[in-house]
Every structure is written in structure tokens, then in C-alpha cells.
Design a protein that fits this description.
The complex is a heterodimer of chains A (77) and B (253).
Chain A: E1 2-10, H1 20-24, E2 30-37, E3 43-47, H2 58-62, E4 68-76
Antiparallel strand pairs in A: 1-4, 2-3
Chain B: E1 10-12, H1 30-45, E2 51-55, H2 63-66, E3 70-73, H3 79-89, E4 94-100, H4 101-107, H5 109-118, E5 123-128, E6 131-132, E7 138-139, H6 158-161, H7 167-172, E8 177-184, H8 188-206, E9 211-217, H9 221-224, H10 228-242, E10 246-250
Parallel strand pairs in B: 2-3, 2-4, 4-5, 5-9, 8-9
Antiparallel strand pairs in B: 6-7, 8-10
Helix pairs in contact in B: 1-8, 3-5, 4-5
Classes of the chains: A mainly beta (77), B alpha/beta (253).
The structure holds thiamine diphosphate and iron/sulfur cluster (2 copies).
One iron/sulfur cluster binds at residues 25-26, 29, 31, 59, 129, 133-134, 220-223 of chain B.
Chain lengths: 77, 253
């Protein structure tokens, strides 16, 4: 069966840690990085379970700062 | 994973018109989402060289630093007057203003109403966060009844402060407007609808169909003293009851 595999690339230097993408992700696989900040002092986000991502783009659409790039590919499983 | 990160699998990226300058907006601010939509729409319309924005006084005062099109900065509230002149001199341009509620619905009420009533072929993008964001969260004409701000710490009261102004409903009554709508950008579905509304308004400007007003019910998490996630929830719970989302006027042409 074919399924969608996705991944996101976060521009961590642009991220302000607002968490809007965290709550927008339907799979709940984005979180604020633990005890790490960018050069502007913001905790940035990262994917916690990249294997599960379907590349739905929800996180990227809601990001006010355009920090997230999304890739998606159909794979046979 | 590496073999997914490749150009042919790209499904979403920041619009290129929105440049790499870090935006000064607070984390989670609705202004950022709307900037992104404006950049996407202008790119999709192929109007990069023919779009002219007029930026306001308020938090969006630096909009011109972030979206790589031509801009004119206006004095507080005067953006529709400036846009009027630009569009009359350059009729083939996509001309829009970008204004907050303090700018558009308080100091600039006259310019807003008269430009819309004259049917100037401009689009107005109106960010209504029910507060003066830039200056520290004071009450605006759009502040909800009972809502606490820096200048009404016990909540807005009718006898002291009057009633919240629904300028978008007023605009829908004016002969000059061809498209009046109220949208929001708090969810994926809402953002998609808001983008279609901005596209419609921009096409109306290019095709000289009259004035368009797109209100975006927005958050100001700093002014509201909430996290961005809480601010979106507060907006859904309180703002939409008073500021109903949807099209108020669409004139078929
Ligand atoms: C003539 C004039 N009066 C007052 C001000 C102070 N001032 C700056 S921004 C602002 C209000 C901004 O509020 P709004 O338009 O709602 O935009 P926001 O910052 O919330 O995006 C005011 C009153 C000014 N800059 N110029
Ligand atoms: S929505 Fe954007 S700025 Fe906010 S936490 Fe996510 S990536 Fe960072
Ligand atoms: S003060 Fe409010 S409107 Fe201004 S950038 Fe911050 S959150 Fe946005």
C-alpha cells in the first residue's frame, strides 16, 4: 500500500518558539527543544517523531514567521 | 529521511517575496501570518513588479521591510488617502493598504470611510486585534465590552467608553465597496479562507471593480497578556461572537 511520508525542515534561527505549529500538528510530533535556544534567545521547535510525519503542511501554514519547509513523498510499504 | 528532502518533494515553503529579514513581531502574532498570505497571493498573481502596499502606523509600520514589493509609508490612519492617490496615478497597479484597528478605525476612520465610499479601486487589509498593540495595549474603538486593557483596567464600560465599532459592517453599507469580508488566521482552514479573500480583494483592485475591505480578526498576545496559543483560544471564544466571520458583501460583476 502506498502512503505519504513527509518531513519538515525548521529554520531554527527564525523560529520564535510561539508553539502555534506544535498545536497545529495533527500527529502531535513537534515540540519545543529542551534547554536549547537560538541566537535571539528563543526556544525553537523540532520534530520529535520524524518517522510519523505525513507532510500535511499544517505546521508550516500556521507559522507566522514562515520557518517551516515541508517535503512529502509517496512511498510503497 | 534525506531522500525526502529534495526539490521534487517540496510541498510548502515561505514565499520568496517574504524576505529573510527577521520580523520584529512578537512570537505568534497574527501580523506574521497575514504578511505570509499577502506575499503568497502577490506571487501567485505574478504581480511582484506591479503591487504597491501602503503601510500604517502601528506594529505593522515596518511591513515594507519584509515583503519585497513597492511600498509607501503613511502617516497614522492616512493609508487609504495615500492609496487613493497611488491607484489614480497608476491605474494598472495592485494597490492595497495594511492597517491595524487603531490606525483604521480610530485616527483614520474618516479616510477609511471616505475612500471606501468613493469606491477607490484599492484593497484594505484590516488587522483587528481589538487593541493598540504597538503602544502597549490601550483600548481601541474595537475593544470588546468588558475587555480589560491598559486604559480600561476594569474592562470596557458603555457609559465611560462607548461601544465597540464594527467598521466592516459600516463599510458593507457603502455604495463604493464591491467586496467586504471578515476572516481570521487562527487555524489551517481559516488561513486558507483568508488567503482566498485577500486574493479576491487584490483582483478587485487590479480589475478596478471598486473598494474591497478584508478584516482579519487577529490576536495580540502581548497586549492581551496571553501566550500565542491562549490568545487564539481567547479570540475564538470571545471575538467571534461579536465579530462574525464571513462575507458581508460581494458584488458580482
Ligand atoms: C499621529 C499619531 N498619533 C498617535 C501615535 C501613537 N500610536 C502609534 S501606533 C498607535 C496605535 C496602533 O494600533 P493599531 O492600529 O491597532 O495597530 P497594532 O499595533 O495593534 O497592530 C498609536 C496610537 C502616532 N504614532 N501618531
Ligand atoms: S509556528 Fe513557527 S515560529 Fe512558532 S514555534 Fe513553530 S516554527 Fe517556531
Ligand atoms: S504588540 Fe501585539 S500586534 Fe504588536 S507585534 Fe506584538 S503581538 Fe503583534
Amino acid at each position: 500500500m502506498a502512503k505519504m511520508k513527509g518531513t519538515i525542515v525548521v529554520n531554527t534561527e527564525r523560529c520564535k518558539g510561539c508553539s502555534l505549529c506544535v498545536v497545529a500538528c495533527p500527529l502531535d510530533i513537534i515540540a519545543l527543544a529542551d534547554k536549547r535556544v537560538n541566537r535571539r534567545g528563543y526556544r525553537y521547535v523540532e520534530q520529535t517523531n520524524p518517522e510519523a510525519c505525513t507532510g500535511c503542511t499544517s505546521c508550516a501554514i500556521v507559522c507566522p514567521d514562515g520557518c517551516i519547509t515541508v517535503y512529502r513523498k509517496r512511498v510503497e510499504s | 529521511m534525506e531522500n525526502i528532502v529534495s526539490p521534487e518533494n517540496l510541498v510548502y515553503q515561505k514565499p520568496t517575496l517574504l524576505n529573510d529579514t527577521d520580523m520584529h513581531y512578537c512570537p505568534g502574532c497574527s501580523h506574521g501570518v497575514v504578511h505570509k498570505l499577502i506575499a503568497e497571493v502577490i506571487e501567485e498573481m505574478g504581480m511582484e513588479e506591479k503591487a504597491i502596499g501602503v503601510s500604517p502606523v502601528g506594529c505593522a509600520v515596518f511591513a515594507y521591510k519584509y515583503i519585497d514589493i513597492d511600498w509607501q509609508e503613511a502617516a497614522h490612519g492616512r493609508a487609504p488617502a495615500i492609496a487613493t492617490a497611488i491607484k489614480r496615478l497608476w491605474p494598472d497597479r495592485l494597490v492595497f493598504t495594511y492597517q491595524g484597528d487603531g490606525d483604521l478605525a480610530c485616527i483614520g476612520t474618516a479616510e477609511t470611510i471616505h475612500a471606501l465610499n468613493r469606491g477607490e479601486n484599492i484593497a484594505i487589509i484590516f488587522i483587528n486585534n481589538a487593541i493598540y498593540g504597538m503602544t502597549g495595549g490601550q483600548m481601541a474603538p474595537t475593544t470588546l465590552m468588558g475587555m480589560k486593557t491598559a486604559t480600561c483596567p476594569y474592562g470596557r464600560q458603555a457609559d465611560l467608553h462607548g461601544y465597540p465599532l464594527k467598521i466592516t459592517e459600516l463599510a458593507a453599507q457603502l455604495e463604493g465597496t464591491c467586496y467586504v469580508t471578515r476572516q481570521s488566521v487562527h487555524s489551517v482552514a481559516a488561513i486558507r479562507k483568508a488567503k482566498r479573500a485577500i486574493r479576491q480583494a487584490f483582483e478587485n483592485s487590479v480589475n478596478r471593480r471598486g473598494s474591497s475591505l478584508v478584516e482579519i480578526v487577529s490576536t495580540c498576545s502581548s497586549g492581551w497578556k496571553k501566550t500565542p496559543v491562549e490568545a487564539n483560544a481567547w479570540m475564538e471564544e470571545h471575538m467571534f461572537d461579536f465579530y462574525h466571520v464571513g462575507d458581508l458583501k460581494t458584488v458580482e460583476s
